[in-house]
């Protein structure tokens, strides 16, 4: 293997080559989780009209202690049903939250701040001009920006689009990603296993990671360690998908045929080998505009390489402005020995203590240990060097 690349260099080489996918119109009821491709402007003011923030009474300007604090109730304004008449001197109108504040009203007095008897309300306490009236356009004005492109639409964003009058949104197309799993020893989950065979698990894991990242995975099946079959599948995959992710067969063993097969399929290798543990043999190439990732077969390596390299690529395909993984800070509760040559990503579990997040490294850290990884929820970054990270050290971690 040639000299190992630094992870950040590898990430830069990937991101340099990826442009966002095309865009499509998506009805907002199906837009949750999608990424906006165009800015969205409000079609109306929000609030649309002067609206009441409280259940109570719409009143004219009435300083405290004034005679006019005793007001005759002359009508009702409910949400969706404005009052049929304006407010005159000495009058009040019963109003509910979200109702149009009637013409002539200077404030809304909450129901808790009046006494009411025989169709007359007495305002208790002072009222200031504009109290409990939501002014039109206070949230957003008609024509102003609701959301920028590159925003992933979560619940609040979808609600904001709907509230501001959008029924569709121009969103990035979900990247279609082929998942090609190789290894002659791999059998479908639940099947009878022959000697030396194991259950295939990376395909499922990668598909789940792709879905979580906002892509659409397609399983290309499990291909045995056979160069011809690999080459055929890779050729086919590169026609139908925006990106290809392979698992297994990419190291230096004699049955690791993915790189050879790819070269024959005109995939240009960009790098092979990154200074990380696990995941050193990870590779990346391009076939024209199609990115191709080669992930190592060891399940934990595959998982880690996805988070550090493939997810950023999916984020870039989606046009997210900050595609690289977002690390948090926490405090180690057990020491971790550093590696001399590679940065390590150590599986750990988080625990809150006051305002601090504590990180407990998992006991099994080898790259085949998917079960111990399944009990973890964080990858702690352990920079290479001498000695160890000590108990109490502040470290960076990636939530899983
Ligand atoms: P490889 O990268 O093909 O040399 O595989 C490294 C190790 O990961 C071997 O022990 C494989 O059996 C195992 N492995 C490879 N692919 C998978 C997979 N899809 N699911 C589970 N284990 C795998
Ligand atoms: Mg293999």
Describe the overall structure.
The protein is of the alpha/beta class. The protein is 19% helix and 32% strand. The protein has helices at 7-16, 155-163, 202-213, 227-240, 258-264, 299-317, 370-374; strands at residues 23-27, 40-41, 51-52, 56-59, 70-77, 91-95, 107-110, 114-117, 120-123, 133-134, 145-147, 168-172, 176-182, 186-187, 198-199, 216-223, 243-247, 268-272, 276-277, 283-287, 290-295, 328-332, 336-337, 343-353, 356-361, 378-382, 388-389, 394-399. The chain starts with 6 loop residues before the first helix and ends with a strand. The structure holds adenosine monophosphate and magnesium ion. Adenosine monophosphate binds next to helix 3. Magnesium ion binds next to loops.
Identify the overall geometry: elongated
**Which compounds are bound in this model?**
adenosine monophosphate, magnesium ion
Q: List low-pLDDT spans.
A: none
Number of strand segments: 28
The largest sheet has its strands arranged as 7-4-6-5-9-8
Helix content: 10-25%
Count of helix runs: 7
Strand content: 25-35%
Rounded to the nearest angstrom, the radius of gyration is 30 Å
Structural class of the helices, strands and pairings? Answer: alpha/beta
Give a nutshell description of this structure.
By secondary structure, the protein is α/β, with parallel strands linked by helices. It has helices at 7-16, 155-163, 202-213, 227-240, 258-264, 299-317, 370-374; strands at residues 23-27, 40-41, 51-52, 56-59, 70-77, 91-95, 107-110, 114-117, 120-123, 133-134, 145-147, 168-172, 176-182, 186-187, 198-199, 216-223, 243-247, 268-272, 276-277, 283-287, 290-295, 328-332, 336-337, 343-353, 356-361, 378-382, 388-389, 394-399. It is 19% helix and 32% strand.
């Amino acid at each position: 293997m040639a000299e190992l690349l630094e992870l950040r260099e590898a990430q830069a080489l990937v991101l340099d080559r990826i442009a966002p996918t095309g865009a499509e119109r998506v009805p907002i009821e199906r837009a949750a989780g999608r990424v906006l491709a165009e800015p969205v402007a409000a079609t109306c003011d929000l609030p649309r009209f002067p609206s009441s923030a409280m259940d109570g009474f719409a009143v004219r300007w009435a300083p405290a202690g004034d005679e006019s604090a005793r007001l005759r109730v002359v009508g009702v304004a409910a949400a969706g049903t404005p009052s049929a008449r304006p407010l005159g001197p000495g009058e009040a109108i019963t109003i509910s939250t979200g109702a149009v504040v009637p013409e002539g009203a200077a404030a809304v007095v909450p129901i808790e701040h009046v006494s009411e008897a025989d169709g007359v309300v007495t305002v208790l306490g002072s009222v200031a001009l504009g109290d409990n009236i939501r002014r039109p356009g206070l949230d957003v004005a008609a024509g102003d920006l609701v959301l920028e492109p590159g925003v992933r639409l979560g619940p609040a964003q979808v609600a904001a689009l709907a509230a501001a009058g959008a029924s569709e949104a121009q969103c990035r197309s979900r990247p279609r990603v082929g998942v090609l799993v190789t290894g002659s020893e791999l059998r479908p989950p639940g099947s009878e296993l022959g000697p030396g065979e194991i259950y295939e698990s990376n395909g499922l894991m990668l598909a789940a990671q792709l879905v979580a990242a906002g892509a659409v995975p397609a399983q290309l099946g499990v291909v045995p360690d056979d160069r011809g079959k690999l080459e055929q599948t890779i050729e086919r995959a590169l026609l139908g998908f925006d990106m290809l992710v392979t698992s297994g067969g990419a190291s230096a063993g004699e049955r690791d045929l993915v790189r050879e097969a790819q070269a024959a399929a005109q995939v240009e290798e960009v790098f092979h080998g990154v200074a990380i543990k696990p995941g050193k043999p990870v590779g990346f190439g391009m076939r024209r505009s199609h990115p191709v990732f080669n992930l190592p077969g060891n399940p934990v390596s595959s998982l880690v390489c996805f988070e550090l390299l493939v997810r950023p690529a999916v984020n870039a395909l989606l046009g997210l402005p900050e595609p690289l993984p977002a690390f948090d800070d926490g405090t180690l509760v057990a020491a971790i020995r550093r590696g001399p040559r590679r940065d390590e990503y150590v599986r750990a579990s988080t625990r809150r203590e006051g305002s601090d997040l504590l990180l407990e490294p998992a006991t099994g850290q080898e790259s085949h240990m998917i079960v111990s990884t399944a009990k973890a929820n964080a990858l702690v970054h352990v920079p290479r060097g001498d000695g160890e990270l000590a108990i109490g050290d502040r470290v960076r971690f990636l939530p899983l």
